[in-house]
Amino acid sequence: MKIKVALLDNNVVYLNKISNALKSNYGQKLDLYIFTSKETLLQSINLSDLHVLIVNKLMFDFQEIADIKIAKGYFSESKEISEINNFKAINKFQKINDFLEEILNLYEECFERISINKTNSNQAKIISYTSFSGGTGTSTIAISEAISKTKKGFKVLYLNLEYFDSTDVYFKNHQDTSFSNVVFLLKKDDMNLASKLEKNLSKDDNGVFYYSSPIILLDKLEINNIDDINKLITALKQMEFDYIIIDRNIDFSIVEKTIFDLSDSLRFVVDGTKIGNYKFLKLINSLSLVDKRENSSICQKIGIIYNKMSSSFNNTIQNKEIPVLAIVNKYNASDDKMLIDEIVSKNVLTNL
């Protein structure tokens, strides 16, 4: 479900600017209508069908529609003004994510609890990436798949749950939020958790959604427990993502077992070296024992993605029970972003 929002003001330039920004960044959340005259507004739309109406006080007095239950706010040109005639004042000149938050807050105050994307609840497919050792390029491959899926028109969240989060190395952060905000919200135990988490999302230029690296890396340890991970995944699945791609270092903990159980698919990134293949097979043997002992199905979800492959030095594992999802060659890119662009351009992860 999208929130239906109408804006009324006599400044055409401002309305076009705010409308373009909202549609570009949050078109999946809002149905937006803009008007420059009260008459056109009343003739064009049934006010009762709206969720949020924000108007210029000099053009429309809410006393005229006191009996219509929708969220109402007056435009203000000063951040110092919080109310106008007992209605919320919305500062016209603020960051676009702050403007969206004002809209969501108006909605929640009127309709009690936000229900954006409720119809798509629990539809997101969860793909978890991990590796038994560093240096295999797990994050590079995970992000490359996220971008590849986005290019196909899917809405994708890249969720880095590594303790040493490197998200900001790959993505350009456009917001003043980070995963530290996520940790705070999980600990706050807010009943509107999904909508609050959604407000803290960032969106990279390539279309992938993500949470910026936490201010303090140790913040991740605060949610290293089953309850918080379950709360986080449950809330994220209430949003309208097609895919949630989790990136996490393997640690054989009960939390990791929970993430594996919640995942639809598990991707192990292997570099094809002799020692790498040996370690991976030992890992699979261990996970098979876990499946037998706990009657779980972790191994059935596992697929291999070979990375940094060279015909001279790397070999695939001869095990028909483990599907090979993709083979990514070794590229001579000067940095990680260029490497991701190269992998995406080859379409090797497009159809996973």
From TrEMBL:
Transmembrane segments: none annotated. SUPFAM superfamilies: P-loop containing nucleoside triphosphate hydrolases (SSF52540). It holds the Pfam family AAA_31. InterPro entries: AAA_dom, P-loop_NTPase, TadZ-like_ARD. Residues 124-298 form the AAA domain. Residues 1-107 form the TadZ-like receiver domain. This is Cellulose biosynthesis protein BcsQ. It comes from Thomasclavelia cocleata.
